[in-house]
Design a protein that fits this description.
Oligomer: single chain
Helix content: under 10%
Shape: elongated
Distance between the termini: 41 Å
Largest sheet: 7 strands, antiparallel
Strand order of the largest sheet: 2-1-5-6-7-4-3
Strand content: over 45%
Structural class: mainly beta
């Protein structure tokens, strides 16, 4: 029997899997996770005036969160830390993930798991892909997700 590895800093990304007002947080696996990118998307309108000057009408700044996993096992039972496997994430994407949902980001600024105090962020899937890399007793997938703040 294998036991999941407990990481002192915890997982970087948590999804709210509940369909009620009480959140149920599920950690995404750190198993071969690539960099976690946070980008800004500025919503604005630019207009060139008749005299040649440029005017911008700022609306809001929204964040885009992107990450990927290489050779992520299909199931939670086989990931190194007990976080979601590829098929768990795919089921969420095809179900609750069709609409808006909440995530937490664990920045772990002082070297410890700070997911309990992280502020929930409302997001929607912008992109999600699952590529089957290896078949066998346990299939392995390359998974890539992009989440956009609502």
């Amino acid at each position: 029997m294998t036991y999941p590895l407990v990481l002192p800093k915890g997982s970087v990304l948590y999804f709210d899997t509940s369909t009620t007002s009480v959140p149920t947080w599920q950690k995404m696996s750190e198993h071969n996770r690539q960099e976690f990118l946070i980008a800004n998307n500025r919503i604005e309108q630019s207009v060139r005036m008749a005299n040649g000057t440029l005017r911008k009408y700022y609306v809001a700044d929204k964040k885009i969160y992107t990450t990927s996993w290489a050779m992520l096992p299909s199931t939670t039972a086989v990931t190194v830390d007990g976080g979601w496997g590829a098929m768990d994430l795919k089921s969420f994407y095809e179900g609750i993930g069709k609409g808006a949902f909440k995530i937490k980001i664990n920045y772990s600024t002082n070297g410890t798991d700070q997911s309990a105090t992280a502020t929930p962020i409302l997001v929607m899937f912008k992109e999600c892909s699952f590529n089957l890399v290896k078949r066998g007793i346990e299939a392995h997938w390359n998974v890539s997700i992009s989440l956009e703040e609502v």
